[in-house]
């Protein structure tokens, strides 16, 4: 366990995550009047896992499989030059995004910089009709004028706290944790495997 982790509280458990995703799936279908021209694109590394879950839930509700893509924003980040070896996962969007209603999916909405980078990366691939944003958690502290269209839960947080999603598939547990980080440490996403 990392020494940066000072105290932890669970603000969403596995059941609440599932309920939130079910609610978001219904909201996406309602706003878009069904699945016509609808596609989901998840931001790697946990947004893409949430997007997969949402696609399954939409299929359960509507009986339709909608297109799913994974978006890696490593080289679009505004802090890219400060990372000597960014972790690259690869973008896989196996459909034409032109004219589609794209729902961009991420786990935690914080400053808005990840979403800005994702929008830049997406626009390099085509011209969707609309881009909507779905996030599991909005923790505030926005630095850019970015707002989510679909939010699982608003989690007020302090600047010295980190809010992280862990998923059973890669971390052995599904929950959203809030914990304090030491000064100088980064309050970012959890690495795969849950090793903080």
Automatic annotation (TrEMBL):
Transmembrane regions: none
Give the matching NCBIfam families: PRK05205.1-1, PRK05205.1-5
Which example biological process does GO assign this protein?
regulation of DNA-templated transcription
Is Kinase found in the keyword set?
no
Give a yes or no for keyword Glycoprotein in this entry: no
- An example Pfam family from this entry, by short name, is Pribosyltran
Stated role: Also displays a weak uracil phosphoribosyltransferase activity which is not physiologically significant.
Q: What is its EC number?
A: 2.4.2.9
Q: Which enzyme class? A: transferase
List the source organism.
Answer: Cryptobacterium curtum (strain ATCC 700683 / DSM 15641 / CCUG 43107 / 12-3)
Gene encoding this chain? pyrR
Per its UniProt record, what PANTHER family does this chain match?
A: BIFUNCTIONAL PROTEIN PYRR
Keywords for this entry? Glycosyltransferase, Transcription, Transcription regulation, Transferase
So what does this thing catalyse?
A: UMP + diphosphate = 5-phospho-alpha-D-ribose 1-diphosphate + uracil
Q: What is this protein called?
A: Bifunctional protein PyrR
The entry lists its GO molecular-function terms as: uracil phosphoribosyltransferase activity
Q: Which family is it part of?
A: Belongs to the purine/pyrimidine phosphoribosyltransferase family. PyrR subfamily.
Span of domain Phosphoribosyltransferase: 16-153
Q: Where is this motif: PRPP-binding?
A: 102-114
